[in-house]
Design brief:
The chain is 28% helix and 22% strand. It is α/β, with parallel strands linked by helices. The strands form 3 sheets. It has a 6-stranded parallel beta sheet with strand order 5-2-6-7-1-8, sandwiched between helices. It folds into 2 domains: 136 residues, 3-Layer(aba) Sandwich (Rossmann fold), CATH 3.40.50.300; 48 residues, no CATH class. It is found in: Cytoplasm. It is an enzyme of class 2 (transferase). It catalyses: thymidine + ATP = dTMP + ADP + H(+). Its EC number is 2.7.1.21.
Length: 216
């Protein structure tokens, strides 16, 4: 039976790499996929991995009907044996409903990949709808690590290495960034609560906990 599968995890845990692997494995067996993405780090209309792999994709626009897009694609005699939706957290809830309809009405597997919560630990609307509708939810087993070595469970937005907790929910960035720009870092829950990034931890380590006592 076709399924809507949600592959979730923090940033830097290999979601896009797995999406590209699924695409490779299925295309190698003669199947043709439809790949959707939104706001990929490599630019418009791309599905990319931090390992350097990249392929073309359909850039999803605001208000676009993904079910209608697939129906039009198929009605023109073109193939689509499965669907991959990367950066699915950025899709609107109604677009997730449309992907579920692709599974139910068109009989195609849909593999959605995305992070569950934003930098404030709040659910993305698209991810929330996937949790509500998915036939199966798979948590990625490649664990991203916090700077302390613990398993990373939260995504943090940083500016100049300092964690911020205010701002728009969607700001495109990456875990690889220069120190003076908006970026992201994965943290364990303890350090996310304390707003302690790798940069602030280094700064704290350089600051003495106790002021030196002058010699008599």
């Amino acid at each position: 039976m076709p399924e809507l599968v949600f592959f979730s995890g923090t940033m830097d845990c290999g979601k896009s790499t797995l999406a590209l692997q699924i695409e490779h494995n299925r295309s190698a067996r003669g199947l043709t996929g439809m790949i959707f993405t939104r706001d990929d780090r490599a630019g418009e209309g791309k599905l990319s991995s931090r390992l350097g792999l990249v392929t073309d994709a359909v850039e999803v626009e605001d208000g676009q009907d993904l079910y209608a897009y697939l129906v039009d694609h198929l009605s023109q005699g073109r193939r689509a044996d499965y669907v991959i939706a990367d950066e699915a957290q950025f899709l609107a809830p109604e677009q997730i409903d449309q992907l579920a309809r692709v599974v139910d009405d068109l009989g195609l597997d849909v593999f959605a990949f995305g992070i569950t919560t934003d930098f404030r630990s709040k659910l993305f609307p698209g991810s929330q709808r996937l949790v509500e509708l998915a036939d199966r939810i798979e948590v990625l087993q490649v664990e991203a690590l916090c700077w302390c070595g613990a398993r990373a469970t939260h995504n943090a937005r940083t500016i100049g290495g300092a964690m911020v907790v205010e701002g728009a929910q969607v700001v495109v960035g990456d875990v690889n960034h220069s120190a003076d720009e908006i970026g992201y870092e994965v943290l364990c829950r303890r350090h996310h609560r304390r707003r302690m990034t790798a940069a602030s931890a280094r700064a704290a380590a350089l600051s003495p906990d106790v002021l030196p006592v002058p010699s008599p």
